[in-house]
């Protein structure tokens, strides 16, 4: 808890949907639109086979502390402090809201999965080490399609592969560290549903915001004025406990 307490001053809870905030990813939506451009693209390209819940834990503003942690926890010489911060934050967030996700998904989680790296990384993904292995759930192992490069942020129905039926009836906790466009997360959600999952909740540690991108300015201004992070704020249903 202390490890989360000392992150509160630089973390910010997701803003509620509406009023220029995308209902899925909590970034900037155009005036009068429910979704941002990317999320509406994903919705149509996937035919609605997407994550049922997208829960960013906090914003990750480029060059700020949380963003820095999300980069260095998986660098060639990973920072133990960054790993500890992100692990505590995510494990505690999931513990607080475990039952909220179950209520929203129609039952408790049955599997956990992380977005597999397409960078040719050797060994286990760091997110699996710091969070997924601490969950009392079997881990699914999707295989990335090598036709798509690591820097490709688009949605593709065939971006990840799971054996048919391997997630049948499952309610899957999908973890990723950073949401930029959401293309990889939603591609994996699609593959999970194609493999039989009945529900998918995507939990992302940081919803990335680029403060130099003009349309992000109102969002960044709101975050500067927002209260410190409150881990009990319920992202799945967006209200305090
Ligand atoms: Zn969005
Ligand atoms: Zn909750």
Small-molecule binders here are: zinc ion
Number of helices: 7
Overall strand count: 9
SS-derived structural category: alpha/beta
Query: Outline, from the CA principal axes?
Result: globular
Helix content: 25-40%
Weakly predicted, low-confidence segments:
none
CATH fold-level assignment: Rossmann fold
- H/E element string? HHEEHHEHEEEHEHEE
Most strands sheet: 5 strands, parallel
Radius of gyration from the alpha-carbon trace, in angstroms: 17 Å
Distance between the termini: 17 Å
Characterization of this structure:
This protein has 241 residues and is of the alpha/beta class. The protein has a single domain (2-240), classed as Rossmann fold (3-Layer(aba) Sandwich). 31% of the residues lie in helices and 16% in strands. It contains seven helices and nine strands, in the order ααββααβαβββαβαββ. The chain has helices at 2-5, 37-46, 65-72, 80-105, 126-130, 183-194, 217-225, and strands at residues 53-56, 59-61, 111-114, 143-144, 160-161, 171-179, 199-209, 233-234, 239-240. Strands 1, 2, 3, 6 and 7 form a five-stranded parallel beta sheet that branches. It has a two-stranded antiparallel ribbon with strand order 4-5. Strands 8-9 form a two-stranded antiparallel sheet. Strand 6 (171-179), helix 6 (183-194) and strand 7 (199-209) form a beta-alpha-beta unit. Helix 3 (65-72) crosses helix 4 (80-105). The model has no long low-confidence stretch (mean pLDDT 93). The structure holds zinc ion (ZN) (2 copies). One zinc ion (ZN) binds at residues 22, 24-25, 27, 35-36, 38-39.
């Amino acid at each position: 808890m202390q490890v989360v307490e000392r992150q509160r001053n630089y973390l910010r809870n997701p803003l509620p949907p509406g009023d220029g905030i995308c209902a899925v990813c909590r970034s900037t939506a155009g005036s009068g639109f429910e979704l941002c451009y990317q999320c509406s693209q994903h919705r149509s390209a996937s035919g609605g086979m997407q994550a049922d819940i997208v829960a960013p834990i906090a914003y990750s503003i480029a060059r700020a502390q949380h963003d820095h942690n999300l980069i260095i926890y998986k660098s060639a010489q990973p920072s133990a402090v960054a790993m500890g911060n992100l692990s505590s934050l995510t494990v505690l967030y999931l513990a607080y809201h475990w039952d909220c996700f179950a209520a929203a998904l129609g039952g408790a989680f049955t599997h956990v999965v992380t977005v597999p790296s397409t960078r040719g990384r050797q060994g286990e993904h760091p997110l699996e080490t710091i969070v997924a292995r601490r969950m009392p759930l079997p881990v699914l192992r999707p295989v990335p399609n090598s036709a798509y490069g690591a820097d490709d942020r688009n949605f593709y129905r065939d971006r990840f592969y799971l054996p048919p039926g391997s997630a049948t009836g499952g309610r899957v906790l999908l973890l990723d560290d950073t949401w930029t466009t959401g293309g990889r997360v939603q591609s994996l959600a699609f593959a999970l549903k194609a493999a039989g999952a009945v529900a998918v909740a995507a939990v992302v540690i940081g919803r990335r915001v680029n403060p130099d991108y003009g349309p992000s300015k109102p969002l960044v201004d709101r975050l500067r004025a927002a209260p410190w992070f409150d881990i009990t704020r319920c992202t799945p249903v967006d209200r305090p406990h």
